[in-house]
Amino acid sequence: MEYITAFVTGGLICAAVQILLDRTKMMPGRVMVLLVCTGAVLGFAGVYRPFQEMAGCGAGVPLLGFGNLLWQGVRKAVDEQGFLGIFLGGFTASAAGISAALVFGYIASFIFDPKMKK
After folding, report:
1. For residue 73, is it within any domain?
2. d(CA 61, CA 59)
3. Residue 38: inside a domain
4. Cα–Cα 20 to 30 A to 105, which of 34, 95, 97, 111?
5. For residue range 39-93, what is the model confidence (pLDDT) as tens digits?
6. Is 7 a member of any domain?
7. Which domain holds residue 53?
């Protein structure tokens, strides 16, 4: 049953994003920022953790999960370092994921030949 819930939740998130892209003039970059900010706000409000426990990986993988990760990092860093944690917490919490994306993206650029549209 957990797998079905995660699958449905991930699908609903993707469907909502697709509706935003199709029915509004929002560009993909803005929708991505909206998802990250929504995840951070849900984490701040204390709603994201119960949502993720109910939905499983369907809520943890998309950009909502990244926004929540940034919020959790900032919260922890502020508790430990005070005001300076506002600036350092998000970077510390997400450094491994961002670094992996950069490294693997760089490697993929050597392996694959991009076909740019003219």
Report:
1. yes
2. 6
3. yes
4. 34
5. 899 999 998 888 888 777 667 767 888 888 889 999 999 999 898 888 888 888 8
6. yes
7. 2-111
Is 36 within 8 Å of 70 (Cβ atoms)? yes
| Backbone phi and psi for residue 117, each to the nearest 5 degrees, phi listed first | -80, 140
Q: Are 58 and 10 in contact (CB under 8 A)?
A: yes
**Residue-level length of the chain:** 118
The DSSP symbol for 46 reads T
Task: Label residue 76 exposed, middle or buried (CB < 10 Å: 0-12, 13-18, 19+).
Answer: middle
Which residue in the block uniquely carries the two structure tokens 């993720």?
Answer: 52
Domain count, the chain: 1
Dihedral sign (CA 39, 43, 44, 45)? positive
Sign of CA dihedral 90, 101, 25, 117: positive
Place of tokens 């950069």: 102
Contact 65, 39 (CB under 8 A): yes
